[in-house]
Amino acid sequence: MKPLILVNFKTYPEATGKKAVELARKIAAVNSRKYHVAIAPPLLELEHVCKAVKILVFAQHVDSSGSGAHTGEITAKDVKKLGAGGTLLNHSERKLSFLILKNTIKEGQRNKLVIVACAGTLAEVQKIAALHPEYIAYEPPELIGGKVSVTAEPEILLKAVRLVKTISPTTKMLCGAGIHSREDLLTALQLGMKGVLLSHAVVKAHNPKRFLEKMMR
Ligand code: G3P
Question: What is the 93 CA–ligand 1 centroid distance (Å)?
Answer without folding.
Answer: 10
